[in-house]
Write a structure and sequence with these properties.
41% helix, single chain, five-stranded mixed β-sheet, two-stranded antiparallel sheet
């Protein structure tokens, strides 16, 4: 009885917290919230369990799981979660980064703009989509252009908030390129805003990170001018 009482108290407290937060946008920290044993389970077992539980969710909603169109959905969702849309949670999927000497002695900013962003809001598990624009000034090393896209993709493929995504991309670029001279801007739309709650389909969210020389007003303005901002 005592345990039940404690459990009821915890459940009531959690429910109250969720109600108090409502649709407010929370940003708990730079690191993605993961348990220490997050990767102790093999992917195949994760997919098996997700398939089982998602099937149960569909059944609870009253869907006929014998229907030809629906019966394969739980398995498809499980595979999609682990192998695709949330694959960025697993460090084994992190892109390998190789640096090259800046033999051309190019010492101006390099900008890669309009990188596609497809992520999912960690509050409602619905899509976030838009564009990322990244830039850096070489400290003597350069990176293959496609790796910039890969870094954006890796950190996007996890439950996210846009602020964290922006900082995670910037921190990875700083570490990979061995420079503080990094800029990241993300302009994205959130389906949790468009399809539920306020249901505003016309707004987008812009977040930015400026490090090193990009904190200087002239450098920042030059970067933003390339983006048409």
């Amino acid at each position: 009885m005592k345990q039940n009482g404690i459990l009821s108290s915890i459940q009531s407290s959690e429910a109250l917290d969720i109600e108090e937060v409502g649709d407010d946008h929370l940003f708990s920290g730079i690191e993605t919230p993961l348990r220490k044993d997050a990767f102790a389970m093999e992917d195949e077992l994760k997919m098996e369990l997700i398939e089982k539980h998602f099937r149960h969710i569909m059944e609870i909603m009253g869907l006929d799981m014998t229907d030809d169109s629906l019966k394969g959905t739980p398995k498809r969702v499980a595979k999609m979660y682990i192998k695709e849309v949330f694959s960025g949670l697993d460090p084994k999927n992190k892109p390998a980064i190789a640096l090259f000497d800046n033999k051309y002695k190019y010492n101006q900013m390099l900008v890669e703009k309009d990188i596609s962003v497809f992520s999912n809001c960690e509050h409602h598990f619905v899509p976030i989509y838009g564009k990322a624009h990244v830039a850096y000034i070489s400290s003597g090393k350069v990176i293959g252009l496609s790796k910039l896209n890969r870094i954006v993709e890796y950190y996007s493929k996890r439950p996210q908030v846009q602020e964290r995504l922006t900082v995670q991309i910037a921190n990875e670029l700083k570490q990979a390129l061995q420079t503080e001279d990094i800029a990241v801007v993300i302009d994205a739309q959130h389906m949790c805003v468009q399809s539920r709650g306020i249901r505003d389909s016309g707004s987008s969210t812009v977040t930015a990170y400026y490090g090193g020389k990009f904190e200087e007003e002239t450098t920042k303005k030059e970067f933003l001018s390339y983006l048409g901002m």
